[in-house]
Amino acid sequence: MLPEIVQSLDILSYEAKKMHTILERYQKTFAKDREMSDAANHLFPDGVTHDGRYMSPFPVYITRADGSKKWGLEDKQFIDYWAGHGALLLGHNPPEVVEAVTTQMQRGTHYGACHPLEMEWGSLVTQLIPSAERVRFVSSGTEATLMAIRLARTYTGKNKVLKFAGHFHGWHDSVILGAYPPFDMNVPGIPEEVCNTTLLCPPNDIDAVETLLKTDKDIACIILEPTGASFGIVPTNGTFLKQLREVTEAHGVLLIFDEVITGFRVAPGGAQAHYNVTPDMTTLAKILAGGLPGGALAGKAEVLELISMKSERDGLKMPHPGTFNANPLSAAAGIAMLNIVKTGEPHKQAHRAADRLRTELNSIIDDYKLDWVVYGEFSGIRLLIGHGEQDVRASDFDPYTWDYRKLKGNSDPDMQERLRCGLLLNGIDLASNGGMTTAAHTEEDVTETVAAFAQTLEWLKAEKAL
Ligand SMILES: Cc1ncc(COP(=O)(O)O)c(C=O)c1O
């Protein structure tokens, strides 16, 4: 595979072409982005509006998008593997969603009232997500997990949250602890009293979970990403989910699946449908709102009923307002999206593209004999560079046998920067730790991406970085 691709890219020797390094070329090619980033640094800390969009030496700026692609300043084109942080299962601007949102825009964006669209949107959630007996809309995934935990405390009368190292559930106090390396409880600004109510467990370790459940009787809930930390960077399998279901039931602890990414992406009914394990509560966002802001908590009626005014009688009502809950614009986009999700077709396309990418990128990695790997399940492309095990072939890699600390946050930052910049120069926007495919990614996109990856590795080799 390698010689063919490299030949087709007509690569002359590095010396002969008198090429600059990748970083020098990045500075030159994206000079306008650099100017914009310099100005942004006077507006925003680090010049960005989301930690994940920070990049060294500076990010590219995007002005429009369509299907699998997006375009930057001076109309530079990129194949996009960000998928709107996971919100875009159908790629950018699917016509059904565009039409629904455009129509709704003329009818109003906020009624300050109940409306029929929220009914249709909520019904789709209950049809698709097995655990969804009742639904409450919120504005983001962070709000959904915040609400799930508060309700679990209210329902069980217990205080503590058990979560897994590396699993991400948004940025509020209880769950940001242990989400990133070094996976400890040190997050500035969170009071010690709050830290003491979060218990951190190694992922996929049912014995550790059971030990905690036996020794600590104040655990209200267990929350996890059902396909593993950061959409499978540290994967989790159905066996672990079934074990969790059993032990939580045995100990009177609520089980929360955070399906903010996996809901509607892994399968129309999320990971819980795929693995046939039904949690007590499910948090949703991203695809739920069709590419617009929005989230939801879904779950058992008797738990969600604690938001009801009826619970006031028992002094248990959880207060829950929210200006943009179920706003009509997000509802319109969400309905259009979920009606397509229902068919199950987009998942097949997105998974197929990711599968081919994983196989072909790994074959190139093996040709170069690198300690890199592309792995993942469903539409996930997880990229680990510089794992340090020289004799592990990328095509044989089994993440289930690896320690989570090696899988999450262990990549070489200097190489990540060069690779990311090299890929952008070659028209590919893939984050340093990977990305996601959508139903809009075509066979040609995959072929171009594989060629761009090979080209970038050749540049890295030429500048003796490999
Ligand atoms: C699994 C998971 N939970 C929660 C969140 C937080 O969602 P939001 O960014 O909408 O607050 C995210 C965001 O990426 C996520 O991936």
Which CATH class of the largest domain is shown?
A: Alpha Beta
Overall 3D shape: globular
**Major β-sheet annotation:** 7 strands, mixed
Intertermini distance? 19 Å
**Count of helical regions:** 19
Percentage of residues in DSSP E strands = 5-15%
Strand order, largest beta sheet: 4-11-10-9-7-5-6
Assign the CATH superfamily of the largest domain: Type I PLP-dependent aspartate aminotransferase-like (Major domain)
- Please tell me the overall pLDDT: 95
Number of domains: 2
In short:
The chain has helices at residues 2-8, 14-17, 22-29, 31-40, 95-107, 116-128, 141-156, 173-176, 192-195, 206-215, 229-232, 238-251, 270-275, 301-304, 328-341, 345-367, 404-407, 413-425, 443-462, and strands at residues 62-66, 69-72, 77-80, 134-138, 160-164, 198-201, 219-224, 234-235, 254-258, 281-285, 295-299, 372-375, 380-385, 428-429, 434-436. The chain is an alpha/beta fold and 466 residues long. Helix 10 (206-215) packs parallel to helix 12 and helix 16 (345-367) runs parallel beside helix 19 (443-462).
Would you give an account of this structure?
With 466 residues, this protein is of the alpha/beta class. The protein folds into two domains: 2-30 and 345-462, Aspartate Aminotransferase, domain 1 (Alpha-Beta Complex), CATH 3.90.1150.10; 95-341, Aspartate Aminotransferase, domain 2. The chain is 41% helix and 14% strand. It contains 19 helices and 15 strands. The chain has helices spanning 2-8, 14-17, 22-29, 31-40, 95-107, 116-128, 141-156, 173-176, 192-195, 206-215, 229-232, 238-251, 270-275, 301-304, 328-341, 345-367, 404-407, 413-425, 443-462; strands spanning 62-66, 69-72, 77-80, 134-138, 160-164, 198-201, 219-224, 234-235, 254-258, 281-285, 295-299, 372-375, 380-385, 428-429, 434-436. The chain has a seven-stranded mixed beta sheet with strand order 4-11-10-9-7-5-6, sandwiched between helices. Strands 1-2-3-14 form a four-stranded mixed beta sheet. Strand 2 and strand 3 form a beta hairpin. Helix 3 (22-29) crosses helix 18 (413-425), helix 6 runs parallel beside helix 15 (328-341) and helix 10 runs parallel beside helix 12 (238-251). The protein is globular. It starts with a helix and ends with a helix. The model has no long low-confidence stretch (mean pLDDT 95). The protein binds pyridoxal-5'-phosphate. Pyridoxal-5'-phosphate binds at residues 85, 140-142, 145, 168-170, 225, 258, 260-261, 285, 295.
